[in-house]
Amino acid sequence: MRKLIAGNWKMNGALAANRALMEALLAGVQARSPACDVAVCPPAVYLAQLQALLQGQDAIALGAQDVSEHEAGAFTGNVAAAMLREFGVRYAIVGHSERRNYQGESDAQVALKAQRALAAGITPIVCVGETLQEREQGQTEAVVTRQLDALLECSGARVADMVLAYEPLWAIGTGHAATPQQAQEVHAALRARLRAALSVPQAAGVRILYGGSMNAANAASLLAQPDIDGGLVGGASLKAQDFLEIIAAAG
Ligand code: PEP
Fold this sequence. Notes:
The chain is α/β, with parallel strands linked by helices. Helices cover about 45% and strands about 15% of the residues. The protein has one domain: TIM Barrel. The protein starts with a strand and ends with a helix. It binds phosphoenolpyruvate.
């Protein structure tokens, strides 16, 4: 399966810095056409700038970091999927653990956001993952299955058109990535759950990304696992050289 490497810039960026980063990334991917899909997900205020910078090429796609579960209306501060689409957005991260934690987003709300994105022609990248405490208590599989089941309940077979991202919370921004074996184990469990809910070919076609301190040094071994179909990259996506090395590791 063609892998996807998506950069989550989180709340980082500035007009001049974004331009410099994108010029370096575009030069890098043009010099060596990657055999994977690539996306960058800047803060929403920079989508228009990035849309302009990415015009006329299709090696790097544009993504958002969130999308409203509502279609339109009195939802101050929210951004609708149709609005994102107008700015050329192809992917939207939903259910990132930082939003689940700081904005109190529930499994059901995340599932609605994913459904709303898909309806507008945007591929949701739905994050699932356990805390360190949940892992230590042996609940990892139960937690990610509960999060995936909310998606299946809401969208049924359309989950086949989504991207999943396994992001253990203890690995995000800590410099301690999951080992390839730890990640593969959870990815395989997610794939098995998809197989039980969808058809076998549909389940095989769902891209399951790994996220959590992925970097230039560990990307190749993580991406070599049979059920790891790409990466959702935070910190390392802000450094052109590191992000390009991760892209190269994906093919
Ligand atoms: C993320 O925030 O999605 C992430 C994976 O961050 P980092 O790569 O910095 O751990």
